[in-house]
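Project outcomes to date are best conveyed with an example. Our students and postdoctoral researchers have been running inverse folding experiments weekly, and each run begins with a structure described purely in C-alpha cells. The record below, which covers 133 residues, was selected by the lab manager from last quarter's runs and is presented without edits.
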C-alpha cells in the first residue's frame, strides 16, 4: 500500500489541512481514498511550518532558475542540481527531491498549456511516508 501526504496551508486562517492519499490495489483495479482534516496548531508550530513552506518554495525557485527551462525529466534535473539545491535550501534529502519533482511537474504542465512556469508560493510542500513525521 503506497501513501502520499501533502500538508497545505490556508494563509488566511493559518489553519493546516492534511490530505492523506492511499492507493489500494485489488486485482487489476486501484482505488484512491482521500481524507482531509483540520489540525489545531500552536503559534510555534505555525512558525515552524511556515519556515518549511518558505524553504520548500525557495528550493523550487532555485531549481527552476538554475536548470535549463526546457528540461522536465526529474532524473536529469536531479543529477544537475540536487547537491546545490540541498545545500542552498537546507532541506532534507527527501524534501529536496520533492522540490525537484514539483518543478518538473510544473514545467510539464506549463509546457502543455504553452505558458511559462509561475513563481512558487510558500503555500504547500509535498510529504511522503519518509518526511511526514
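After processing, the design step wrote out the following sequence:
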Amino acid at each position: 500500500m503506497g501513501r502520499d501526504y501533502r500538508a497545505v496551508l490556508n494563509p488566511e486562517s493559518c489553519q493546516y489541512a492534511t490530505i492523506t492519499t492511499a492507493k489500494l490495489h485489488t486485482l487489476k483495479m486501484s482505488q484512491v481514498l482521500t481524507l482531509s482534516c483540520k489540525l489545531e496548531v500552536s503559534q510555534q508550530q505555525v512558525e515552524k511550518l511556515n519556515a518549511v513552506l518558505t524553504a520548500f518554495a525557495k528550493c523550487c525557485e532555485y531549481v527552476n532558475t538554475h536548470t535549463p527551462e526546457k528540461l522536465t525529466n526529474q532524473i536529469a534535473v536531479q543529477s544537475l542540481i540536487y547537491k546545490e539545491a540541498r545545500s542552498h535550501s537546507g532541506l532534507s534529502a527527501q524534501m529536496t527531491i520533492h522540490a525537484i519533482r514539483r518543478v518538473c511537474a510544473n514545467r510539464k504542465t506549463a509546457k502543455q498549456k504553452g505558458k511559462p512556469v509561475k513563481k512558487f508560493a510558500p503555500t504547500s510542500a509535498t510529504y511522503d511516508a519518509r518526511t511526514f513525521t
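Residues 60 and 99 are 5 Å apart (CA to CA). The helical segments are 43-65, 74-89, 93-113. The training component of this project remains on track.
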